[in-house]
Amino acid sequence: MGGILRILNKDTRALPVRIRDVAKKLDLSVTTVSRALAGYDDVASATRDLVIETADEMGYVPQHAARQLRRQRTETIGLIFPTTGSRFSDPFFSEFIAGIGDETSRRSYDLLVSVAPPGEAEERAYHLWTNSRRVDGFILIRTRVDDWRISYLTKENFPFTSFGRSKTLETSPHIGVDGCSGVKDLVKHLLDQGHRRIAFIGASEELTFVGDRLEGYQIGLEEAHIAYDPDLVFEGDLTRAGGYEAAKILIERSPSPTAIIGVNDLTALGAIRAAQEGGLIVGKDLAIAGFDGTVAGEHAHPALTTVYQPVYEIGRQVSAMLIDLIENQAGSELDSLIRPRLIVRDSTLNSKPVPAD
Amino acid sequence: MGGILRILNKDTRALPVRIRDVAKKLDLSVTTVSRALAGYDDVASATRDLVIETADEMGYVPQHAARQLRRQRTETIGLIFPTTGSRFSDPFFSEFIAGIGDETSRRSYDLLVSVAPPGEAEERAYHLWTNSRRVDGFILIRTRVDDWRISYLTKENFPFTSFGRSKTLETSPHIGVDGCSGVKDLVKHLLDQGHRRIAFIGASEELTFVGDRLEGYQIGLEEAHIAYDPDLVFEGDLTRAGGYEAAKILIERSPSPTAIIGVNDLTALGAIRAAQEGGLIVGKDLAIAGFDGTVAGEHAHPALTTVYQPVYEIGRQVSAMLIDLIENQAGSELDSLIRPRLIVRDSTLNSKPVPAD
DNA sequence: GTGAAAGCGCTAACAT
DNA sequence: ATGTTAGCGCTTTCAC
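Structure tokens for the assembled complex are given below, as produced in the milestone run.
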């Protein structure tokens, strides 16, 4: 162990190549090398080529801290997950990060990630990263109807974009998904299948997207002249466990619903489990649908009817928008509303042949 | 839009408070303020308290770039996901990040994240972050038997820890999970249930953990004097889709296996789906088990028998180990082997009484 | 077309 | 106990 620690002693670590080293080797000034590498055209093209080649050979890479200090820009964007703890598992997560990651590396930005539950720790985290100039901007997720992050960053005049709207500042740059019309489509599909008692398992309406989807549910029923029944609406917590518990209660009701909409796929998957434990055949005895279009729903049994939103693509767009904002490029639109797509699968189709016992 | 851009103009942004500002206000030197904030005891305690209070009032936060440039330390650790693209969805991911995130913020470190598929882009990413002194160390995941990252970082004398071993440097600091004994336990359980034809759906054996688990499978059979049958071993790709395809083929075989082990939960979940589509009752007609202990498996129908590894905790430990290494603290052990825990659920339990032995 | 010099904000060695 | 000074590596005036 001592051995490993000794080996890792900083003193024995190769020092990174600096501009100065390249300059010395070519007998040029630091200034010229810097400008050559930056591609300025007030340096002789022969010199420029030579510098670039030599720097490359020597493995020169600019020191991030120095450049950042000088330019007062970090080329880094921040993402703070509004959650924490051990059983945090969101399929949305990995795909979203992949989208952001691909876009940021394309534009030579880095991504700084942290986790902090909404509240004081979250506030401290945003404070720290803004005031220490740790990042050039933020991507917000799970926006809330009344969102402290949005008022804070707006007040501080600090760039951000969000996945989802907020009442706090309706015009703030964001990518939204039209959850209302998505769920409306879903309700229409269920009505077409003959359902009249359709339940909805939601989550805290603090979250903008939850309210949107609930609204779609209400409007969808209204348009079909079906009275809104509060007994059919439950509040879950976006997890499988939450969907499971809520569905268990709903199933016991009489008359029980013939269809259940989960505010997200995980909720719906929990509901499927509850139904199956209760001896119901999902798709035949009870229709269940979700929202998200995760892989998990696709491979559920039965496969889950859902409203698909392109999370990877949203991650890409929301970071592209942020970088444009940071660089004051008026490239992309400052808000866009993505219309999600209904995917009908077996969990809401009653023609499904059931394996005989 | 013009409005928003104008508002975001940097010039109108409040300048962050610098040490100099605090010093000026108190009519002290920059040095004294710096030392007071650092808690040195060569500054009068009255002064120190005053400085700390004033700095706090003024909202002073050290500028990260300046401190970093001076100290030649970033207090940041890097994590590069060896993958990319749109349908990347790994339940392991979010929990692991949560573990790392909680530990790093506890120690005032930040986490820089990127995604790059194994190969050239990955090499460039590591090069960049080491040479630009962007991070103080790396956490590696999905270690490979022959792992370029490990030889590179070792050669560069750059701190890293990994989740999983590698043949490249067996003694490198890491947290391992004893996949071999985990699967051995699982095989034993299946044998106890009376199974003799047990299949294994793996993945690329380049990945260390795949080889480990396969070895457990082989040893488990060997100990029961059951001949290893290569026809029962398939290579999947760690996804549900891969498990589904492999299981579909296995089920068609005659004689078909009576039990299938998936190298991870996703593979097993795919296999469950294939079995159910084929009209089999999982748990009764065919036993299926996985490895990971993800929430998805817990809520599958039937619930998935699996070998549980504490991903959140591993994330915490692997980052604690890395930070200790960076700070040359010999605090934690430099490697540890976690023994995963078999969790038996319905997917491998039939109603028949288990023969006592 | 190239170089000298200043300075980003911070820390630390060296005064006093 | 406090201040002066130098310098981390880079970019960018400003001279020549």
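Chain A touches chain B through 89 residues (CB under 8 Å). Chain A has three domains: 7-70, 73-177+311-339, 179-309+342-348. Further analysis is deferred to the final report.
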